[in-house]
Design brief:
alpha/beta; 54% helix; 16 helices
Length: 450
């Protein structure tokens, strides 16, 4: 082999070795650069700069890592939208917040937060007095924590609002509110009474209450009027708080047998109540006389812009029968529940079989929630058929055993000691040595066993 050939081969070998070395060095440099790029991309991802990291991974051809960065970007975007929805909710923009939560689908708790928006929106409606809308929305969320309680509170608030309008004699407003409330509590009865009041006002009457004052008597707290049935007392400052009362005397005749009614009516400090103080006890034809008395009391309410409520019925001696039956009849015919029935020394008259309350009347009075306070001198209780029947039918009956006095004193004491005043919402129930309160129930044996 010639020297030239050998030299040429050496040169070629040298070139090849150099090229190989360059290739190895270049590859190492590129690998190092790529690793540095990967490290940089990871650092970007670790720092939360997922957009830059995604671009870096895409440049490096690392599709899986780039996709993970994209997922993180989407997660961050949803979290930002969730934060924006939370801000809308905190600002009270409930509909916008609800839409923002719903747009997030099943991301984290967005669906639940959307329902929370409706719950809070319902609360805002109720706070504005928009009960029908608020309750309707809450009913769609009945399984939401607190929704059932909120519905109950809202209905009670709506009831109180309707009652306020009713007692203030804003009949159109009251009727609309009762219609919205539906069959809640005694709403239907109160609505019907409002409708009856509107009809009665439109029809007018031939027997106005204010036609003639009692001897021109203008009492300290109000005015006393003559009416066909007796006397009507009307407080001077009537209003939504004004209650009502009917008092039937004892005796068999059609005239006032004593002066306790007029004495009470002339008291200088009477409760805030419209009171019908009857001449007749209603012993004969009680249902007709009860109806007559109710219509007279209602007419007094119409003339004085008072809606009758918190009715108290009082009966002395045989007037006790009419008072007890009146609680059932007035409730059954007119929806007006008597809060209390007070009777005074009916004594042995509780045995009159044709005058005591029927089982149906006992049931009606029990449904009305009437409480019976029977003032007696002792020895009267479950041994009297009329009383035992009321108790057996679930009526709230209390014997008020009076220690001392006579027939008339049991009545005048109830006036002067404040028993009637208490029943009409003025002051506390009398608690003195002359009274002993004995509640009765089905297991009671009073007067023998107590």
């Amino acid at each position: 082999m010639s020297r030239i050939v050998k030299w040429t081969l050496c040169v070629l070998l040298l070139i090849l070795l150099t090229a190989a070395g360059v290739f190895v060095v270049t590859k190492r440099v590129r690998m190092q650069e790529r690793q540095e790029a990967i490290t940089e991309a990871q650092a970007l991802a670790d720092a939360g700069d997922y957009a830059a990291a995604q671009a870096a991974y895409e440049t490096l051809g690392m599709a899986e890592e780039a996709a993970r960065c994209g997922e993180q970007l989407e997660l961050e975007e949803k979290r930002e939208r969730l934060h924006q929805a939370e801000t809308l909710l905190a600002d009270g923009a409930y509909l916008d917040a609800r839409d923002a939560f719903l747009a997030l689908g099943d991301f984290e708790n967005a669906a639940q937060r959307a329902r929370e928006c409706d719950f809070r929106r319902a609360g805002a409606m109720l706070a504005e007095g928009r009960y029908r809308e608020g309750i309707s929305l809450l009913e769609e969320l009945e399984d939401w924590p607190g929704a059932a309680d909120a519905i109950a509170e809202a209905r009670e608030a709506q009831y109180e609002k309707a009652l306020e309008a009713t007692y203030a004699c804003r009949m159109d407003e009251a009727i609309a509110l009762w219609n919205e409330l539906g069959d809640y509590r005694d709403g239907p009865r109160l609505r019907d009474r409002c409708l009856a009041r509107v009809a009665a006002m439109a029809a007018g009457t031939d027997e106005p209450i204010r036609a003639s004052e009692y001897s021109g008597k203008d009492l300290g707290g109000g005015t006393l009027y003559w009416v066909r049935l007796g006397l009507v007392y009307v407080p001077r400052d009537v209003g939504p708080e004004t209650r009502c009362m009917i008092f039937w005397p004892g005796g068999y005749d059609e005239a006032l047998s004593n002066n306790y009614l007029s004495e009470y009516a002339n008291s200088p400090d009477l409760p805030n109540a419209i009171m019908l103080l009857c001449y007749a006890n209603g012993y004969s034809d009680p249902e007709l006389k009860i109806e007559d008395c109710y219509r007279t009391l209602e007419q007094a309410g119409i003339e004085n812009n008072v809606f009758l409520h918190d009715l108290v019925l009082c009966g002395a001696s045989m007037g006790a029968y009419t008072a007890c039956q009146g609680a059932a009849e007035i409730y059954r015919d007119h929806g007006l529940a008597a809060r209390y029935v007070l009777t005074f020394d009916a004594g042995n008259h509780w045995e009159e079989p044709s005058r005591i309350m029927t089982p149906e009347q006992c049931d009606a009075a029990a449904e009305a929630g009437t409480a019976f306070m029977l003032l007696e001198f002792g020895g009267i209780g479950m041994n009297k058929r009329a009383i035992e029947l009321m108790v057996a039918h679930g009526n709230d009956v209390t014997i008020v055993e009076v220690a001392e006095g006579g027939h008339y004193s049991i009545i005048t004491d109830a006036m002067r000691a404040g028993m009637i005043d208490w029943a009409l919402g003025k002051g506390a129930r009398p608690d003195n040595g002359n009274y002993r309160y004995i509640p009765l129930d089905r297991n009671s044996t009073y007067p023998r066993g107590q």
